[in-house]
Amino acid sequence: MNLVLAVDLGGTKIYSALVGPGEQILRRDVRPTEAALGQKRVIANILASLEAVTPAGALRDGSILALGVGAPGPLDPVTGRIIFAPNLQWRDVNLKEILQNALGLPVFLENDANLAALGEHLYGAGRGHDHMVFITVSTGVGGGLVLNGEIYSGAFGGAGEIGHMVVAPGGPVCSCGNRGCLEAVASGRAIKQRAVELISAGNGNKILHLAGGSPDEADAPAVTRAAQEGDPEAKEILETAGSYLGLAIANICTLLNPSLFVIGGGVARGAGMFLLDPAEKEAHLRVLPAFRESLKIVPAALLGRAGVLGAAAYARRKLAERG
Ligand SMILES: [Zn+2]
């Protein structure tokens, strides 16, 4: 049997899958990461999740070829070392080696957003686009580049950190410590921060109402609901976030000239046109005029599956390269 295992390791959940040829997910398991309980616990959870999708005896009889792992970075795909993952509180962990020793399978590790980009490129919204940029807007903002049909990870494995491009010099402080990164102005966290600021200034009544009266619950979903009900303040928050996203898209488009931008992530999916319309408008306004016509932005298609499908495809490619 031509099977591979895949894991998408996130800050809140672990998604494992047994993947047949192509995009066939034969078995899946989703469970909490429990990052706060420490590294040993997380690794035990990954192994338990993989066990749940592995048919009895399949590790020994050779029917599973490899494991592909998507993990938060920055990481080194060659050595398999996670350099620093703030969501997991991990520093310098060789996850590839740990999993290889535990399973006795070849393990291939890449940045989670890069693998989601590959998944969308092969099986999702980016099919047929060999030069594609994937941007995920959730609690943070991540990105992945597919160039010439391959993941582009740069000299040190860190390419595609779109969330940390500076789009608002002098803007709010980002989770990385710099100021005015895209993540600091367009992520779910940033949207919530703006809503909370609005409420503390005595405004944002509609958002506060939809947050059940608690400013702490005035998150991106609450802001989106308010926008859907026509609230101008909520619309403006999403419009501002979307415009910054569009500014980043324009700059990336001018740099790389891709044929498609695919936008994924829970916040983008929830906010839909309230985020993507202003992004598109701003991107068209700012991009090199010669590229205006060809600039195309679409929502992601695979939702939560992009990461594991990309991880499985990546493992197959890397195995083939090794021969
Ligand atoms: Zn940053």
CATH overall fold name of the largest domain:
Nucleotidyltransferase, domain 5
Weakly predicted, low-confidence segments: none
**Strand/helix succession:** EEEHEEEEHEHEEEHHHHHEHHEH
Ligand types: zinc ion
For the termini, the CA-CA separation is 18 Å
CATH architecture of the largest domain: 2-Layer Sandwich
Radius of gyration in whole Å, from Cα?
20 Å
The CATH superfamily of the largest domain is identified as: ATPase, nucleotide binding domain
Tell me the name of the CATH class of the largest domain. Answer: Alpha Beta
User: Helical element count?
Assistant: 11
Tell me the strand order in the biggest sheet.
Answer: 3-2-1-4-8
Q: Give helix % range.
A: 40-55%
* Major sheet characteristics: 5 strands, mixed
Task: Look at the helices and sheets and give the structural class.
Answer: alpha/beta
Query: For the residues shown, what is the average pLDDT?
Result: 95
Strand percentage, roughly?
15-25%
| Domain unit count | 2
Number of E-type strands? 13
Note the overall shape: globular
How are the SSEs ordered, and which strands pair?
Layout: E1 3-9, E2 13-19, E3 25-32, H1 39-53, E4 64-71, E5 75-76, E6 81-85, E7 90-94, H2 95-103, E8 107-111, H3 112-123, E9 132-137, E10 141-147, E11 150-151, H4 182-186, H5 188-200, H6 205-210, H7 220-228, H8 232-256, E12 260-264, H9 266-271, H10 273-286, E13 297-299, H11 306-322
Parallel strand pairs: 1-4, 4-8, 9-12, 12-13
Antiparallel strand pairs: 1-2, 2-3, 5-6, 6-7, 9-10, 10-11
The structure holds zinc ion (ZN).
